[in-house]
UniProtKB/TrEMBL annotation:
InterPro entries: AAA+_ATPase (IPR003593), ABC1_TM_dom (IPR011527), ABC1_TM_sf (IPR036640), ABC_transporter-like_ATP-bd (IPR003439), ABC_transporter-like_CS (IPR017871), P-loop_NTPase (IPR027417), Type_1_exporter (IPR039421). It is a multi-pass membrane protein. It is found in: Cell membrane. Keywords: ATP-binding, Membrane, Nucleotide-binding, Transmembrane, Transmembrane helix. GO terms for molecular function: ATP binding. This is ABC transporter ATP-binding protein. Pfam families: ABC_tran. Residues 24-33 have a biased composition (Pro residues). The keyword Transmembrane helix applies. Residues 391-641 form the ABC transporter domain. Residues 1-42 are annotated as: Disordered. Residues 73-357 form the ABC transmembrane type-1 domain. PANTHER family: ATP-BINDING CASSETTE SUB-FAMILY B (PTHR24221), ATP-BINDING CASSETTE SUB-FAMILY B MEMBER 6 (PTHR24221:SF654). It comes from Catenulispora subtropica.
Length: 651
């Protein structure tokens, strides 16, 4: 299970002995999801691309709430002007107090009132700004997440979800990408506000001493570059340490997941997992520490230089005032301007750096939403008619990636309409892979699969899947009600309780579900109990493994009137009696439906119309049960081994 997968509150079931499909390297998607990497391990991205990204982020933030964004801009501009206004009002007030001849700008009381109003605005505006910014951040985050998960749902195949580079991207996009447009906007507005303040105060300083104004401005340049370099390093660090972050979450999840709990306790894995988690955390922490250290080394001396500049300016101002060259008001405006310029420049510089970093991080979100489809889609899809003749596989070769071994090697197979075709073979023979190709989770590396002669790549993938029902070996257990767990099989009938119950009945689970504390409305989970009494059994129940498997079967059986029914180990967790009963019901249900049945229990498939034996990716035997027994090959041997096991037990 992916620790940060899209399934919150649901997990796939993995039966014992099933291939865990670790996906060391997934089929190569059409374009690489790993970005071009610079010497620092971070993403290499040109200035123009960065500006485009920033503009996209800003446009997105603006689109999320145009009115709020406009209000935010107005507050920002006002806040940017306030320090200059306050500095000038202070100067005029002091001069008016000290020298009545200078009262042409207003009476001291009027100036004091204006200064007080400026003070009130200075106190209130940051609060308003924070509120508006948070509003905007929430709106933009909702929009971004909606688009991101829309994009994730748009990947029709499984390759992307098994591509480690893409999963890293997705994690970063989830973690930071969603807030990046809001942060870009906030940082850009911080730059706007800082620039207005700097322009006003530098203008003021310039009137007093042009040399000092130039020096204060110049002192900010190295700081700007240092901050930008720091942002780049931080974004590179985020990318470099994303795999470690994902592994850390994986170990954390294992220690807290209720399904992992029994193995973790029995095998005493707690300390081992905690150690591994700490190792990964250490990798992340070391990377962060290095970035912080570099920031300290570069920013520390710059801050000291800025303070020295202020001290020198103050000495000059006091000296000039003592000599009568400037007024007391000038000294006060000078002190306010130097301090104000330095803090506004600092805010502007760090705003630029934040905008830069947000644009870099926003790249992960863009990579997710702009990733091309993982399966080529036909431009003019053929409309799929109900199956009338057969599904055929012609010389189908498949491997999960160019680095992986071939899983299927030239499979030829006809699945006639209405027939039940059983697929058998040892673990890893390629049975589930064959089924996944039929569902078009991947395309064959070579060869083709045709539906009544139409290549399934020429059909819209949703159209194809709408004609199928399936129980997968690693079916899902959703933390939802019993009814929902079944109805998810056919969302068009989500509220059709009769259909849900009929499906449960066919999967031999109706009696159990009907007897639950709230019947079909009982939550099949003890994970969510917000607002309910956690000790009340009606809050949720836990099913056994076999009961879950029947629920998964019922989910598949919700999909009536489908052309192809895929059953990949549908009864592996059932007791012998239940298995027989389920297969009996399934035989009735399958009648007239084309079906593919995978099972290691050969007794369950002996009545299939056609049995094929897969070995090392090839069909090595095919025929009915009787024909294969008569041929005395692999199937006969496997069947005899299983039968002998039962006979021995009875002897
Ligand atoms: N997503 C994947 N990425 C890479 N390799 C995979 C993936 N899924 C399966 N494989 C590999 O493909 C091979 C065939 O696996 P598959 O699941 O099709 O076998 P199977 O016949 O269904 O086995 P079982 O009887 O154990 O269920 C195995 O070697 C497996 O490791």
């Amino acid at each position: 299970m992916s620790p940060d997968g899209p399934f919150g509150g649901a997990r796939p079931h993995r039966p014992p002995g099933a291939s865990s499909a670790p996906a060391p390297s997934a089929p190569a998607p059409p374009t690489p999801t790993r970005p071009a990497v610079g010497p620092d391990g971070g993403e290499r991205v040109g200035f123009r691309a960065l500006v485009r990204r920033g503009a996209t982020a800003l446009a997105l933030a603006w689109r999320a709430r145009p009115l709020t964004a406009t209000g935010y801009l107005a507050v920002t501009v006002l806040a940017g002007m306030l320090p200059t206004a306050a500095a000038w009002l202070t100067k005029l007030l002091l001069d008016a107090l000290v020298s009545p001849a200078r009262r042409h700008s207003g009476t001291p009381v009027a100036l004091a009132v204006a200064l007080g109003a400026a003070g009130l605005a200075t106190a209130a505006l940051p609060q308003v700004s924070r509120y508006v910014q948070a509003q905007l951040q929430r709106a933009v985050s909702t929009l971004v997440q909606d688009r991101m998960f829309g994009a994730v749902n748009g990947f029709a195949g499984l390759a992307r979800m098994e591509d480690p580079a893409f999963l890293d991207r997705l994690r970063l996009a989830q973690q930071a990408g969603a807030s990046a447009p809001g942060q870009t906007l906030a940082a850009t507005f911080q730059v706007v506000q800082g620039s207005i303040t700097v322009a006003g105060l530098i203008g003021t300083l310039f009137l007093l001493n042009p040399l000092l104004a130039a020096a204060v401005l110049t002192a900010a340049v190295p700081s700007l570059f240092a901050q930008l370099a720091n942002s780049k390093r931080r974004a590179a660090m985020l990318w470099r340490s994303s795999s470690a972050g994902r592994r850390k979450m994986f170990y954390q999840m294992l220690m807290t997941d209720q399904h992992a709990a029994q193995e973790v306790r029995l095998f005493g894995l707690g300390a081992f997992l905690r150690g591994r988690m700490l190792d990964e955390l250490d990798v992340v922490n070391r990377a962060e520490r290095e970035v912080d250290r570099r920031l300290l080394i570069t920013q520390g001396p710059l801050a000291v230089a800025g303070a020295a500049l202020s001290a020198a300016g103050l000495i000059w101002a006091v000296h000039s005032a003592a000599a009568g060259h400037i007024t007391l008001g000038d000294v006060s405006v000078f002190i306010a301007a130097v301090a104000g310029v330095q803090s506004a420049l600092g805010a502007t510089v760090s705003g630029s750096a934040d905008a830069y970093q947000a644009a870099l991080v926003f790249g992960h979100y863009l990579a997710v939403v702009q990733a091309p489809p993982d399966l080529p889609q036909p431009e003019h899809p053929v409309v799929l008619a109900p199956l009338t003749d057969r599904i055929s596989l012609r010389d189908v070769w498949f491997r999960y990636s160019p680095d992986d071994p071939w899983v299927l090697r030239g499979v030829d197979l006809d699945i006639p309409r209405g027939a039940c075709v059983a697929v058998v073979g040892v673990n890893g023979a390629g049975k589930t892979t064959l089924v996944k190709l039929l569902c078009r989770f991947y395309d064959p590396t070579r060869g083709a699969i045709a539906w009544d002669g139409t290549d399934i790549r020429d059909v819209a993938v949703a159209d194809l899947r709408d004609r199928m029902a399936a129980v997968f070996q690693d079916y899902m257990e959703y933390d939802l009600t019993a009814a929902e767990n079944i109805a998810l099989g056919d969302l068009a009938h989500l509220g059709d309780r009769g259909r849900v119950q009929a499906a449960a009945d066919r999967a031999e689970i109706h009696d159990k579900l009907a007897s639950l504390p709230r019947g079909y409305d009982t939550l099949l989970s003890r994970v969510f109990f917000a607002g309910s009494d956690p000790d009340d059994p009606a809050t949720g129940v836990r099913l056994s493994g076999g009961q879950w498997q029947r629920v998964a079967l019922a989910r598949a059986l919700m999909r009536r009137e489908r052309d192809l029914l895929i059953l990949d180990e549908p009864s592996s967790g059932l007791d012998a009696e239940a298995e027989q009963a389920v297969h009996e019901r399934l035989r009735e249900h399958r009648r007239g439906t084309t079906s593919i049945l995978i099972s290691h229990r050969l007794s369950a498939i002996r009545q299939a119309d056609l049995i094929i034996v897969l070995a090392q990716g090839r069909v090595v035997e095919r025929g009915t049960h009787d024909e294969l027994m008569a041929a005395g090959g692999d199937y006969a041997r496997l069947f005899m081994v299983q039968a002998a096991g039962y006979q021995e037990a009875m002897a």
